[in-house]
Amino acid sequence: MKRTLYKSACLALALLVAVTIFQRSLTPDQFLQEPLPPTVESPQTGNLVKANSFWKSPEDVVAPTPMASEAPQAWDVLTTNCSININLTHQSWFQNLEPHFRQFLAYRHCRYFPMLLNHPEKCEGDVYMLVVIKSVITQHDRREAIRQTWGQERESAGRGRGAVRTLFLLGTASKQEERTHYQQLLAYEDRLYGDILQWDFLDSFFNLTLKEIHFLKWLGIYCPSVPFVFKGDDDVFVNPTNLLEFLSDRQPEESVFVGDVLKHARPIRKKDNKYYIPPVMYNKPTYPPYAGGGGFLMAGSLARRLHHACDTLELFPIDDVFLGMCLEVLGVQPTGHEGFKTFGISRNRSSRLNKEPCFYRDMLVVHKLMPKELVAMWELVHGNLTCSRKLQVL
Ligand SMILES: *[C@@H]1O[C@H](CO)[C@@H](O)[C@H](O)[C@H]1NC(C)=O
Ligand SMILES: *[C@@H]1O[C@H](CO)[C@@H](O)[C@H](O)[C@H]1NC(C)=O
Ligand SMILES: *[C@@H]1O[C@H](CO)[C@@H](O)[C@H](O)[C@H]1NC(C)=O
Ligand SMILES: *[C@@H]1O[C@H](CO)[C@@H](O)[C@H](O)[C@H]1NC(C)=O
Ligand SMILES: *[C@@H]1O[C@H](CO)[C@@H](O)[C@H](O)[C@H]1NC(C)=O
């Protein structure tokens, strides 16, 4: 316990040092005028990425252990070395693409980036379900609403099962002015709540796939034995009680992958659509089955196999489709479930169903609620709600 506390304290301090150095562009020597434990004086400490592992002995950090070929002991990408792929830039099909596709393709080979904020301790102890939420640096209000509602950590998932822990997954701000203003706030937020993982890549729509593979790699290193993972967006309503009830008759060894599953979905070829994919990027008529990224559940064991499966594929710009491609490599079919309404309860936006708490009470995941609506709906669902009948969705 003391050791854990010491580690956490070191970690917090290291992150603080790292973030501050990063932001003020101080050299480590300038910064070290403040009193710090002796271990921090190693010249490597100025390097942001070493911060998370600096309490380990130098041999641990430098020399890869024999097991390193299977899974590294710590995040092992320590520098960003991502240069544009000049093989593409001269090709005419490439030049004819829209700018964001060119940007995606030109950097597609850069698969892993260093960590800026990490929580190696997140899965210490007995953890039953890890809840991870895709978020961006500016959406602080959404994270706050989730912490107050469905993202609350609990020490027991009930019925003698382990804890439920929560993490937000972030990249860096996509605009320079946001980066300087928000990074420091984010580090502060993380010190308060200890629930942010951040990697050093731009948080853009097409980089969501990077977020997916970074998380899977992270899980294999820091959370290798968690039975279940829920992954979702930051604008959904989740009913954790129903998730846990759903999981209660599943075994962690099963290849559980459950969500709002789309089968035979066709790539969108209309250029003005957010999900437009040109035929040069994907020429098959349909995508493999995949679960909508709004929220899905998977077994931890499957997540670890997915990490290796994804590593055999070229990145695809739509993250949930990409995960479907990885599942296809494993030969695992995602399972559709009525309780995942990641496209909203009713596609008719003005439908009263979308505001009906009795529906939310019986669902697992519902898209899409803004922070205030989320908190209000959560209170309604957990207040004295009288519903005429319980839907049979579980
Ligand atoms: C970055 O990668 C290039 C080519 O892969 C290599 O030549 C160069 O030395 C690398 N730079 C660093 C700082 O690792
Ligand atoms: C560019 O092409 C060369 C030769 O075919 C290949 O070795 C290299 O890996 C390619 N670079 C990238 C970034 O794909
Ligand atoms: C993804 O992030 C990397 C690293 O920050 C950046 O170089 C690249 O341009 C980004 N890609 C897209 C499509 O935004
Ligand atoms: C959507 O729902 C509203 C209210 O229930 C209804 O009046 C309207 O006709 C519906 N629109 C469509 C296109 O179904
Ligand atoms: C729920 O109802 C009970 C009894 O009717 C009442 O005492 C309690 O204050 C109510 N709770 C809320 C949150 O409205």
UniProtKB/TrEMBL annotation:
It comes from the Eukaryota. It is a single-pass type II membrane protein. The keyword Protein transport does not apply. Its EC number is 2.4.1.-. The keyword Transcription does not apply. InterPro entries: Glyco_trans_31. GO terms for molecular function: hexosyltransferase activity; UDP-glycosyltransferase activity. GO terms for biological process: keratan sulfate proteoglycan biosynthetic process; poly-N-acetyllactosamine biosynthetic process; protein O-linked glycosylation. One of its GO terms (cellular component) is Golgi membrane. Transmembrane segments: none annotated. Its main location: Golgi. Keywords: Glycosyltransferase, Golgi apparatus, Membrane, Signal, Signal-anchor, Transferase, Transmembrane, Transmembrane helix. This is Hexosyltransferase. The gene is B3gnt7.
